[in-house]
Design brief:
The complex is a heterodimer of chains A (332) and B (513).
Chain A: H1 7-37, H2 44-69, H3 77-99, H4 103-129, H5 135-153, E1 158-160, H6 163-169, H7 171-174, E2 176-177, E3 180-181, H8 182-200, H9 202-212, H10 214-219, H11 224-250, E4 252-254, H12 261-271, H13 283-302, H14 311-331
Antiparallel strand pairs in A: 1-4, 2-3
Helix pairs in contact in A: 1-13, 2-8, 2-9, 2-11, 2-12, 2-13, 3-4, 3-5, 3-11, 4-5, 4-11, 8-9, 9-11, 12-13, 12-14
Chain B: E1 10-19, E2 22-32, E3 37-41, H1 48-55, E4 63-68, E5 71-73, H2 78-83, E6 86-89, H3 101-105, E7 112-113, E8 116-117, H4 119-132, H5 148-161, E9 166-169, H6 178-193, E10 197-201, H7 205-211, E11 214-219, E12 222-228, H8 234-241, E13 261-270, E14 274-282, E15 286-291, H9 297-304, E16 311-316, E17 319-321, H10 326-331, E18 334-337, H11 341-345, H12 352-357, H13 371-385, H14 401-413, E19 419-423, H15 431-446, E20 450-454, H16 458-464, E21 467-472, E22 475-481, H17 487-494, H18 502-512
Parallel strand pairs in B: 3-10, 3-11, 6-9, 9-10, 15-20, 15-21, 18-19, 19-20
Antiparallel strand pairs in B: 1-2, 1-4, 4-5, 7-8, 11-12, 13-14, 13-16, 16-17, 21-22
Classes of the chains: A mainly alpha (332), B alpha/beta (513).
InterPro entries (chain B): AAA+_ATPase, ABC_carbohydrate_import_ATPase, ABC_transporter-like_ATP-bd, ABC_transporter-like_CS, P-loop_NTPase
Protein name (chain B): Sugar ABC transporter ATP-binding protein
Keywords (chain B): ATP-binding, Cell membrane, Membrane, Nucleotide-binding, Repeat, Sugar transport, Translocase, Transport
């Protein structure tokens, strides 16, 4: 190791550091902006509100981080969530005469929701791996299928959870432990486990390898298809987890449930520094991305500087900026 | 040389070419004359492609000059060369598969009427050109629907639209059937009659003897001989291509070790690449696989490793095994080092540690990957394989080719395979690193491992191997061992000039199964 070659890597490391702190700086800037615009911004109520609302997208986005890291894409998550919510509500309502209106019923409903999520992820995964169809096409297809199914199940209207059962189920969204809402606790757990899995396990390493260069992964005796399938199933399971928390919030599912969640999830992943073309994923970055998107929404609602109706436009600008910045890093 | 020959249209004068510190062409003189087919032959890596690329403006020369019609010229790029009438037809065609034949012929030189494309004129011209080339196809068909030989004719038509006076063809018949090749030869004869100068490369020496007027032989980047084809024959060409002395680049051979058969492969076929190949590998042996590029050596090994669909029987230490994927191959004690280290071997954006342990990650992970153990393994690998990197975390894409290869070797050896298959282990690396790798391969055999070395470099196969199997067109064409391993013996089998002792081989394989 010669002295002259040692200089370059250090310069590189500094550049990566800048990239790492980028999303954090953006988050900090938003917090400062929010505080200056509204003194209630950092109140416990508002913070809880922001984080709890971002929990659904957040849990889904952790899954999306893995999917994008392996070089894939899942556009179906929003529709899948609506479909799972619809089926879960039907199952719960149907169970009341048999298992009663208590927690037992709700647990069965939750398990059904998670299992169905796994199955939906399996469907995506098997079509992509065994069917050798582009992930974009497969999940665009299932996006349509799941959305259509929930509309059909609801007969074009809204599926509503039995009112009494909803009262029992409510605390899963509105309750909490030690003053922290359940969705926030679940989101935090999923994110921490996700980060550890990505960073510290052979599976996480394999995901990065496959997304980086599938051929190298194959030649390194990695079961590429198996890892892919598992990743889409993980995404399905996490959509199930998000849905389990979402059902008690409104107690209903309709054609508009989970609309555009896939876009928000993918946006959060990209803002967080995961490479869109795969090969490198960062779960904690995704968490920051989710919170950034949520804060923008919140700030627009708290102030009247910009119409909240422009939220989507601002999110769009941020996504494009994030990708431009990613490219800048690659060039550096 | 007779005085009646026309003056050269394109010349290389004392051309040298270096990539980094390595010089690959050493002062080559070469002349193409109108109305002549000039064949350029040499082993893989002899510098044929480099010379062609220098002539056609794809690469600048490092020394010497290129002259067009006697005047020194510098082509800024291949387009400048094309404008001057010098066109290179690559072995892998440069056609836009989704565009039609006529669109491809005029790509970049579209005929226009005002603002719009003059489709009718282009169609008429493309049709007449292809008809002249004895390829009467529907020019509206996308190129993807054409056969390989038809694509080649589209390439030639494309060159003619560019008014090519010099046509450089890189192994045009490598992908053609015998009948298709005949069509090509007829067209070459026609172009020749029209005064086009043709540079032609091929590994099929008999075909060169047939169509070439002049033959130039390159070896290790130097011109060995340039003579009228009439004075050459395939055997003489093969002799000239090889025939160099071995230095002490290679460690002393150990002799074939014992006769335990650790791997027997019988009637092994890889659809489209290998047909009914059978061979055996002994403990502590270095078995060379020689043959031309495309002879099916890589595909055979990838089939054995479960990387390609294949059929046939494999037995390990006398027991029949089924290897469906690389994981099972690893479990059976086999490891394969790919010839494509950038595309299939290493994750170029990742650091040394992640790359080193990717194949053997099981060894470093329970629930979690033990990064400390990985770092220790990297320490050991850096030491054992003499890997020189500016930093352990630098992307391995920034390492030199030699250090990448050493890292790839370290990665492959981390699973402690009993059978190591090395595919072109020294391709594109400098002589010093080559020597290190040769010493290492020798050491593996001394440890009692069995090594298969696929190499297109004759000296390497000869210098390393206890036994050499020669493949030709997807089949095993012969075997030589011990003192019989000579360059000529191998080249003759690889070129199909001599039929090998197949019967003995087959007999052994049956005995083992």
């Amino acid at each position: 190791m010669s002295a002259e070659t040692r200089v370059e890597p250090q310069r590189r490391r500094f550049a990566v550091d800048l990239h790492v702190v980028g999303p954090l700086l953006a988050l900090l800037a938003l917090v400062v902006l929010g505080m200056s615009l509204n003194d209630q911004f950092l109140s416990a109520g508002n913070v809880t509100n922001v984080l709890a609302r971002s929990a659904f997208i957040g849990v889904i986005a952790v899954g999306a981080t893995f999917v994008i890291t392996i070089g894939g894409l899942d556009l179906s998550v929003g529709s899948m969530s609506a479909f799972l919510a619809g089926v879960t509500i039907i199952v719960l309502n149907a169970l009341i005469p048999n298992t009663g209106g208590g927690w037992g019923t709700i647990v069965i409903g939750m398990v059904a929701c998670l299992a169905l999520g796994l199955a939906a992820g399996f469907l995506n995964g098997i079509l992509i791996t065994k069917g050798r169809i582009e992930a974009f096409i497969v999940t665009l297809g299932t996006l349509g299928i799941f959305r259509s199914l929930v509309v059909w199940l609801a007969n074009g209207g809204t599926l509503s959870l039995d009112f009494n059962l909803r009262e029992v189920y409510r605390p899963v969204y509105y309750g909490g432990v030690a003053g922290i809402a359940w969705p926030i606790v679940v989101f935090a757990l999923v994110a921490i486990i996700g980060e550890i899995v990505m960073r510290r396990t052979a599976y996480g390493r394999h995901c990065a390898a496959i997304g980086s260069n599938e051929q190298v992964a194959r030649y390194s005796a990695i079961h590429v298809d198996r890892v892919r399938l598992a990743t889409y199933m993980l995404q399905g399971l996490l959509v199930g987890v998000a849905t389990v928390m979402y059902v008690p919030r409104l107690g209903s599912a309709s054609s508009t449930t989970g609309i555009l969640w896939e876009l928000e999830a993918i946006a959060a992943v990209i803002i967080g520094g995961t490479v869109l073309k795969g090969g490198f994923g960062r779960v904690w970055g995704t968490v920051v991305g989710v919170v950034i998107l949520s804060l923008i929404d919140n700030i627009l609602n708290l102030t009247d500087l910009v119409s909240p109706y422009l939220n989507g436009a601002i999110q769009g600008v941020i996504i494009i900026l994030a990708v431009v910045l990613q490219r800048g890093r690659k060039g550096a | 040389m007779t005085t009646s020959r026309p003056a050269p249209i394109l010349e290389a004068r004392r051309v040298t070419k270096s990539f980094g510190p390595i010089e690959v062409l050493h002062g080559v003189d070469f002349a193409l004359r109108p109305g002549e087919v000039h064949a350029l032959v040499g082993e893989n890596g002899a510098g044929k492609s480099t010379l062609m690329k220098c002539l056609a403006g794809y690469q600048p020369v490092s020394g010497g000059e290129i002259a067009l019609k006697g005047e020194p010229v510098v082509f800024a790029d291949s387009e400048a060369a094309e404008n001057a009438g010098v066109v290179l037809i690559h072995q892998e065609f440069n056609l836009a598969e989704q565009l039609s034949a006529e669109e491809n012929v005029f790509l970049g030189r579209e005929l226009k009427r005002g603002l719009f494309l003059d489709r009718n004129a282009m169609r008429a011209k493309a049709e007449s050109l292809l008809k002249e080339l004895a390829t009467p196809i529907d020019t509206r068909l996308p190129v993807s629907k054409l056969s390989v030989s038809q694509k080649q004719m589209v390439e030639i038509a494309k060159a003619l639209v560019r008014n090519a006076r010099v046509l450089i063809m890189d192994e045009p018949t490598a992908v053609l059937t015998g009948r298709e090749a005949e069509v090509l030869f007829a067209q070459i004869a026609r172009l020749k009659a029209e005064g086009v100068a043709i540079l032609y490369t091929s590994h099929k020496l008999d075909e060169i003897a047939r169509i070439a007027d002049e033959v130039t032989v390159l070896r290790d980047g130097s011109l060995v001989e340039s003579a009228p084809a009439a004075t050459m024959n395939p055997n003489r060409m093969a002799e000239l291509m090889v025939g160099r002395e071995l230095s002490d680049l290679f460690p002393e051979k150990l002799g074939a070790g014992d006769r335990d058969v650790v791997l027997a492969v019988r009637d092994f076929s890889v659809p489209g690449h290998v047909e009914t190949a059978s061979f055996e590998l002994h403990r502590g042996e270095i078995l060379g696989f020689a043959g031309l590029v495309g002879a099916g050596r890589t595909e055979l090994m990838e089939g054995i490793m479960g990387l390609r669909p294949a059929s046939g029987m494999i037995s390990r230490n006398g027991e029949t095994v089924r290897i469906r994927d690389p994981k099972e191959a690893t479990r059976q004690g086999l490891a394969y080092l790919t010839e494509d280290r950038k595309g299939r071997g290493l994750l170029l954006r990742y650091g040394l540690r992640e790359n080193l342990t990717l194949l053997g990650l099981d060894r470093f992970s329970g629930i979690f990957v033990d990064e400390k153990a990985e770092e220790e393994a990297l320490d050991a690998a850096i030491c054992r394989f003499d890997i020189r990197a500016g930093s352990r975390t630098m992307p391995v894409g920034n390492l030199s080719g030699g250090n990448q290869q050493k890292l790839l070797l370290a990665k492959t050896m981390l699973v402690e395979p009993e059978i190591v298959i090395l595919d072109e282990p020294t391709r594109g690396i400098d002589i010093g690193t080559k020597q290190q790798i040769y010493a290492f391969i020798n050491e593996l055999a001394r440890e009692g491992r069995s090594v298969i070395v696929i190499s297109s470099e004759m000296t390497e196969v000869i210098g390393l191997s206890d036994r050499v199997i020669v493949m030709r067109s997807g089949r095993i064409a012969g075997e030589v061992s011990g003192a019989d391993i000579t360059e000529e013996a191998i080249v003759r089998r690889a070129m199909g000039l001599e039929v090998g002792e197949r019967t003995e081989m087959a007999g052994q394989a049956v005995h083992v199964g």
